[in-house]
């Protein structure tokens, strides 16, 4: 009788849990459907308020070159429908931009994947690598379906239109004698431009995953990446990089993503670390990296790939791309040295982890400035970033008591803020065609911090109350590799 009663009780409990799970799924599904409807309605309204799509009548000189991810391009024979004669496409620019695209993708897979994987514990290595791989897949699909259109069409100052939904209007073949181009990169096919921009959209949410490494449910991660990409990355990228964006119109400078990518991801990472909560045993037991060799290899790939990130943002194989490459190398080296010497003085030994972390900090900080500053600016930005990011990843983190597992906030938010502000100090009109303004840059930083932090918190709260964010304690103790993915490293 007792066994029968127990079995009946267990069946009832299982039924309750099953119904609760179904209810959470239904709530989240309804939310996602509502979100899609709102995006469609808002974008249609924005499009209706605009007299013409982004490419209608646009020329390379009509865009405020200084504010875009591809800030400047040579004049072209682009017509009113955004098409150009196929023989007017620059083979050199196209080859460089395709190379840059591959370099930026290399930064996420395998660069960031290895960098993050080496810093977690062995039991979570594969799960951490899965974060970068899954993000690459999700954002690729989102970008070609909806993201590109909402970022790089005029629409309104706050969001693009649906003109390029499912890449409608993008011409890939030259049989008809013409190809579509974007006003920001009129010497290369639009397919190359949108692919280059896709790699930026991929790496940004992938960076955030380091903040909650070793404890988030994989299902929650997938939904978070989807919602964050649409609700945070897409609007901010449109504001700053599309000439019709409201921050671009105010003169906010971001050559290759200091604000759009790094401040955006870093602030969101801090919010995620706070809402998800610390790892079990955080502050009480050691959690050393399991393989710093992987981290060093990953950082090296990031360093090399970053030349596509920054120099590619010139949009052409020209002198500005060459200067962006030079200042990227100099600032990165300076930042790595600054971090290394500060750590050496404070802790008695210069660590490999410190050197590569300092290099990444320099890469982050020079990103918004790379198309606007000279050698002096690069040296100062690198030195300040190395010291500031070391402080952000050690002292500030200790004072705050938060578990930002892989220092996303300390490196990317702090480094991005340093770079964005110093761009306003060191930007030269002779290089970027515009003078820098510290006040304008500070305004862009504040807007991004507030918007990114607030919307990220809302997304995470919705996921927390619907499907939950964290694995249970037993799964966390055993490790995400085995518990979530059914595999592990021997």
Walk me through the structure.
The protein is an all-alpha fold. It has a single domain (13-75, 96-172, 188-485), classed as Ammonium transporter AmtB like domains (Ammonium transporter fold, Orthogonal Bundle), CATH 1.10.3430. Helices cover 66% and strands 1% of the residues. It contains 17 helices and two strands. It has helices at 2-49, 91-119, 125-152, 190-208, 218-241, 246-249, 258-276, 292-311, 319-347, 352-366, 375-393, 395-400, 408-426, 429-432, 438-466, 473-478, 480-485, and strands at residues 83-85, 178-180. A two-stranded antiparallel ribbon has the order 1-2. Helix 2 packs antiparallel against helix 3. The longest helix has 48 residues, at 2-49.
Brief characterization of the structure:
The chain is 66% helix and 1% strand. With 490 residues, the chain is mainly alpha-helical.
Structural class: mainly alpha
Largest sheet: 2 strands, antiparallel
Say which CATH homologous superfamily is assigned: Ammonium transporter AmtB like domains
The number of E-state strands comes to 2
Low-confidence stretches: 1-69, 71-76
Nearest-integer average pLDDT: 87
Helical residue percent band = 55-70%
**Ends distance:** 46 Å
Describe the global form.
globular
Summed up, the helix count is 17
CATH architecture: Orthogonal Bundle
| Beta-strand residue fraction | under 5%
Order of helices and strands: HEHHEHHHHHHHHHHHHHH
């Amino acid at each position: 009788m007792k066994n029968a009663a127990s079995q009946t009780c267990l069946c009832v409990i299982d039924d309750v849990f099953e119904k609760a799970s179904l209810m959470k799924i239904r709530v989240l599904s309804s939310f996602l459907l509502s979100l899609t409807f709102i995006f469609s309605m808002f974008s249609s309204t924005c499009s209706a308020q605009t007299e013409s799509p982004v490419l209608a009548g646009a020329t390379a000189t009509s865009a405020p070159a200084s504010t875009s991810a591809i800030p400047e391009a040579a004049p072209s024979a682009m017509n009113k429908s955004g098409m150009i004669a196929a023989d007017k496409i620059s083979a050199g620019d196209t080859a460089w931009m395709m190379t840059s695209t591959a370099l930026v993708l290399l930064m996420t897979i395998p660069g960031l994947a290895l960098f993050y994987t080496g810093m977690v514990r062995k039991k979570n290595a594969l799960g951490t690598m899965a974060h970068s791989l899954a993000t690459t897949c999700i954002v690729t699909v989102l970008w070609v379906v909806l993201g590109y259109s909402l970022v790089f069409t005029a629409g309104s100052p706050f969001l693009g239109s649906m003109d390029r939904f499912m890449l409608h209007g993008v011409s890939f073949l030259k049989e008809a004698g013409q190809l579509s181009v974007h006003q920001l990169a009129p010497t290369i096919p639009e397919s190359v431009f949108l692919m280059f921009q896709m790699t930026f959209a991929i790496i940004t949410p992938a960076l955030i995953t380091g903040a909650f490494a070793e404890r988030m449910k994989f299902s929650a991660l997938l939904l978070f990446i989807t919602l964050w990409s649409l609700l945070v990355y897409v609007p901010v990228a449109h504001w700053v990089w599309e000439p019709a964006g409201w921050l671009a119109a105010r003169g906010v400078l971001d050559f290759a993503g200091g604000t759009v990518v790094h401040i955006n991801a870093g602030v969101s990472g801090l919010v995620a670390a706070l809402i998800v909560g610390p790892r079990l045993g955080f502050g009480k037991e050691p959690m050393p990296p399991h393989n710093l060799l992987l981290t060093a290899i990953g950082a090296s790939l990031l360093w090399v790939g970053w030349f596509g990130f920054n120099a590619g943002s010139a949009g052409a194989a020209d002198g500005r791309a060459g200067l962006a490459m030079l200042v990227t190398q100099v600032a990165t080296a300076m930042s790595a040295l600054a971090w290394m010497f500060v750590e050496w003085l404070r802790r008695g030994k210069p660590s490999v982890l410190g050197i590569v972390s300092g290099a990444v900090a320099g890469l982050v900080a020079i990103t918004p400035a790379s198309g606007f500053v000279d050698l002096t600016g690069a040296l100062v930005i690198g030195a300040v970033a190395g010291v500031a990011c070391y402080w952000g990843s050690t002292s500030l983190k200790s004072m705050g008591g938060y578990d930002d597992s892989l220092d996303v906030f300390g490196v990317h938010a702090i480094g991005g803020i340093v770079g964005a502000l110093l761009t306003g100090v060191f930007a030269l009109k002779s290089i970027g065609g515009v003078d820098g303004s510290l006040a304008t840059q500070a305004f862009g930083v504040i807007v991004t911090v507030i918007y990114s932090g607030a919307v990220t918190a809302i997304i995470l709260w919705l996921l927390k109350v619907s499907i939950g964010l964290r694995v249970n304690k037993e799964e966390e103790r055993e490790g995400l590799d085995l518990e979530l993915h059914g595999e592990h490293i021997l």
